[in-house]
Amino acid sequence: MALWLLLAGPADVLGVDAGKLGMAVLVTTAWLSLYAVSRLPRGQLEAVVSPGEWRAWVGFGFTLVAIVYFLSQVPVFEQNGAGASAVARNLVMLLVAWLLLSSVMGSRWKGAVQQDERDLEIEKKASARGRSALVFVVIALAVMLGFSPADRLQWATHFMIANLLVCALMWGWLCEYAATVLLYWRDRR
C-alpha cells in the first residue's frame, strides 16, 4: 500500500498528499518490521546470515525504493518547483529511516564479531562492482550530453543534470548492495 501511494496512487487521499502519506507508511512499516526482527530471539538464521549481509539486504531494499521513487518523479524535476522540494524531502526522510534502522539492527549484534576476513573480502569485491556501475553511468551521461545536438538538450537544465548525478550515485550503491548480497549467497553455497 505504501509503495502504491508513493509511486502510483492518486495526488491526494482524504485531503492529504499521497506522496507524503505513502512515504510515512513505508517508513513506519519498514521500521516496525525491522524492529520486530531485531527483537526476535537469536536463532539459526543468525548463525547463517552475518551482520554484513543483513546490512546489505536493508541497504538494497531502501536503495531500490529510493531509485524507483526518484525515477517515478522525474517529471517533477523538469518543473523545478515545490514538487522537487517535496521529492527531496521524502528521499531525506527515507535516508533518516534507513540510518535509524541500521542502528537498531547494529544493536542486535552488539558484543559479537561484526566483520571477519570473509566480510572484508566480500565488501572489497562488492565495492569494486558498485564503483564500476557508477563510472559506467557517469561516462554514459557525459557521452550523451557531449554528443547530443544542443536543440535536443532543452531538458538538460543544471537542476536536471544534478538530479541525474544523484541518481547515478544511488545506482552505484544499489549495484554494490546487490553484489554484496549475491557474494554472501554464493559464499554460503
TrEMBL record:
Keyword Transmembrane helix: yes
Segments traversing the membrane: 25-42, 54-71, 91-109, 130-148, 160-185
Domain of life: Bacteria
The keyword Transmembrane is annotated on this UniProt entry: yes
Protein keywords: Membrane, Transmembrane, Transmembrane helix
Record-given protein name: Uncharacterized protein
Native organism: Pseudoxanthomonas gei
